[in-house]
Amino acid sequence: MTTSAEYRYEVDDLTVTEEMRRDFRQFGYIMVRNFFDSDDLRQVKQVIEDNDEIVKRAFGVSDGAGRESKMCLWNHPGNDVTGMVSRCEKTVNTCEGLLGGEVYHYHTKLMMKNPRTGGSHLWHQDYGYWYKNGCLFPDMMTVFIAIDKCVKENGCLQILRGSHKCGRINHVMVAGQTGADVERVEAIQNSGQCPLEKVEMEPGDALFFHCNLLHTSTGNDSDLRRWAFLCSYNKASNDPVIKHHHPQYTRIKKVSNSAIRECTNFTDMTGKDFMDPTKDATIRVEKSTNNQQIK
Questions:
Q1: Which of 20, 60, 100, 198 has its Cα between 20 and 30 A from that of 268?
Q2: DSSP 3-state assignment of 292?
């Protein structure tokens, strides 16, 4: 389960060190094990499992092979437990330390790969999407937070280590997703300079990764659920030059790390601004009788 740049969260304070910044620059990510503890996860699961205020807004993401994963995305953190995850000091301060300046919340999404049905995600860079939104610089990143165990069997994240140094790669529509140019990805893989790493994670682990890091995931052929939170951030100085379906610069109201376990709001989703997938130019959507599905 070891990745190339591993750290462990053991105290209620995380200072971004020069070693962390060096690893982030070299590999395109850092892994922080046990970033959220069992008390934090219990709070989060109460929101996403014990009521349907978030899950009911999910839509299907087709992989073009007859399978789909479910996704729910919101633009602003809000004041519920999930908002505390993306606003707490250890999450935001780590991103600011790695990117070198103030960040703001770009969006958060819950990715749901259910047993035996969860689809794959194509090789892509997050900036392959966000470039089209008027973000001029790749001063952006995502925090992948494991809600469930993420292993090879249930479609864990896979990355090409150091591939963020290749710059932005052209992306095209494939099925319902925006994927990186296949020939370019193959060339990077075959070069031997960006080794493939399968990122296995325990619940509560967090992967902080650069927006140009190439990543993918396979379908879920196991009996294990694979749900994850992905909180994305943009540097304040990188305010998009066009208005689009994600926010312009909006200052984050940071909260203490203890706010997650102390929060009692599990149902009020006021202000989160859930995304309407039909307004996203980087995906294609068709209406189905049971749910919204990306085709």
A1: 60
A2: strand
